[in-house]
Amino acid sequence: MHIHILGICGAFMGGVALLAREAGYSVSGSDANVYPPMSTQLEEQGIVLHEGYDSEPLDPAPDLIVVGNAMSRGNPAVEYMLDRGLPYISGPAFLADYVLRDHWVLAVAGTHGKTTTSSMLAAILDYAKLEPGFLIGGVPGNFGLSARLGNKPFFVVEADEYDTAFFDKRSKFVHYRPRTLILNNLEYDHADIFPDLDAIKRQFHHLLRTVPGNGLVLSNSAEPHLDEVLEMGCWTPQESFALQSETGWGTADIAPDGSSFDVTLDGERVGRIEWSQSGLHNVANALAAIGAARHAGVPVEHAIEGLNQFAGVKRRMELRAKINDIAIYDDFAHHPTAISTTLEGVRGRIGEGRIFAVLEPRSNTMRMGVHREALADSLKEADRIFIFHPQDLDWPLAEAMSSLGDRVEISDEVDTLVDWVAAAAMPDDQIIVMSNGGFGDIHERLAVALAEAGEVQ
């Protein structure tokens, strides 16, 4: 069976491609935005990539076309497919019908932390020798790839609330039918498809309707919007988690940077984590992963041992280079809350050292200006701030950043940002690059510029 995937280099669709290939299907794909790490993964697995959306890879016709949610009417490949009546399916529906059937699905939903929590949960199950399958919107360091079939019954999936396809406007996650569901948090995002927060809550409620009565819902009790979703109806046993909680999963004796902490259950200490991760948001992610793993039969002590060996996720505070004692990190943060928690985690780790935030406001929601009032405050932990100004930004960026004073510099040229950062950086500075895209390969360009600056000195 030959499957062709439209939008194959997206994090989700790339994972679908890897699963289909592993299942024995012949897989090819088209995309207009091809960049690592996904493109590298696909090529290493022998999947043929076609640049652009012309009709060439659809003639002769594949047996099935899997359509990514980035595709829309008017796209040449989509129009060719529809005009000729070629068989097609959405990515989430393909996953549900061809992969998840007969599995115990463990799903991780929420505005933030889905990728990291899913990676933690898969790592715990793997440490327990359960060899889970997974599809994650990033590349976990423990595995080196974003998806694998694994062995039944367990399959971990990052459960995204974004819409399914141009012909199916439900959230992706309603297709997955999890038995174990983590609800990490809930804020307004994806303004390009959701008119308000209530619309997102409704989709989360639809997700809850699919969890069976013999399943488990783990919800962050520090998130009031999740409480509102649960009040809309939940037919499944529940457990809660929060950093400071006497009921459910909680913590004690947390290091300032989150690098170590006690895990508690209903106020009783059940173990201690000492790991390579940082940030209080990752502490909360760990609690959720431990609780979900226990539901799958993993003893708490084994889950903690697994997390102590957790290797992180690419593009989640990933150290890309260290040049002349200046560290360059890559992080996927693109929402004010994620930006804030990332920088707070760095501050907790380094104390009084200097933090450089280098930001690309790339997401649809950010470009529309939905978060412009919160953006400046989310960057307050940074000592120097360098922001790329996209040409299609619909709001006055400089005006929104005015409260940051002379700490912030803005340019519509990546090369200019690189020059500014390289000129200002000194040994022991931490440079945090934040974007949900490729950002013009700025990480490598910064490394080169810093190395050249060091040679001049």
From TrEMBL:
It catalyses: UDP-N-acetyl-alpha-D-muramate + L-alanyl-gamma-D-glutamyl-meso-2,6-diaminopimelate + ATP = UDP-N-acetyl-alpha-D-muramoyl-L-alanyl-gamma-D-glutamyl-meso-2,6-diaminopimelate + ADP + phosphate + H(+). The keyword Transport does not apply. Residues 2-99 form the Mur ligase N-terminal catalytic domain. ATP binds at G110, T111, H112, G113, K114, T115, T116. Gene3D superfamilies: Mur ligase, C-terminal domain, Mur-like, catalytic domain, NAD(P)-binding Rossmann-like Domain. Belongs to the MurCDEF family. Mpl subfamily. This is UDP-N-acetylmuramate--L-alanyl-gamma-D-glutamyl-meso-2,6-diaminoheptandioate ligase. The gene is mpl.
